[in-house]
Design goal:
alpha/beta, GDSL_Rv0518-like, 7 helices, Rossmann fold, SGNH_hydro_sf
Amino acid sequence: MRYVAIGDSFTEGVGDELEDGRPRGWADLVAQGWANGTGQAIEYANLAIRGKLAWPVVESQLEAALALRPTHLSFNGGGNDMLRPRADMERIADAFSRVLQRCDEEGVTLTLLSGANPSAGLPMASLIQRRGDALSAAVLARIEDRPDVVRALNWPDRVLATPPFWSPDRLHMNARGHHRVAARVLEALGVPVDASWWDLPAAPAPHLPRGAYYRAHVLPWLKRRITRTSSGDGRAAKFADWVTIAPSA
C-alpha cells in the first residue's frame, strides 16, 4: 500500500503539533491507523503545504505525488479560497475534477475530503457557511456517478464544527479534530479504527477575549493578504518521499 496526501494546512496537520512543533494531523494519523488496522506496513508521503489555494495545490503537488507511483491519493482544497473576496466555487470544484482525471489515468484510488466547518468561530461566519455549502455541492455533483471515489465528508459534521475540536486560531482543528477526521477517512476506506478517535477527551483550551483573538490571529492573516504573502512561503513538504509506517503496538 502506498498512500500520498496533497493539500493545504488541513492536510499538512496545522493545529495538531507535536511537542517539537512539527505538525501531525489527520493524514499522518490515517497512515498509522491504516498500518495498525491491517497489521501491515504502508508507504506514506505528504506533500501538503499550508496557505495554498486549490489550484496551486494541484499545479505544484499533484504530478509530484503521482510520480511516486502511489496506490492511493487523498485530496482536499478550497479552504483558503473561501476566505478570498472573489472565490469561484465552480472553479475550485474544477480542481477536484482535475485530480480525479489524473488519478483515473494513473490507476490510483482517490479519496476526496471536505474540510471541517470552522464558520461558527470566525468572522463572516454566514459567508463562509454559504461558500462551504456551495463548494460541497459543486464537488459532489462532479463525482455523483463515481462510487469508486472514496468520500470522507467532514463539512456536514456538526459535532466537528463545535469549539472543542478547534485550535485557538479557530481556523485549524486541534488534535481532537484531526483524530475525528482520521477516523472518518479510515472508516470510508474500510479499515478498522480505534473507536476513541471519534471523540477524544477535550483538552483544556485558553479562551482569548475578542480583542486578543483579533490581534493574535486575524490581523496577521490580513497582513498576509495585503502583502500578498502566504503562511506556506518557503516551506517544504514534510514527507516529500516515501516513509515507512509500521503497525504500532
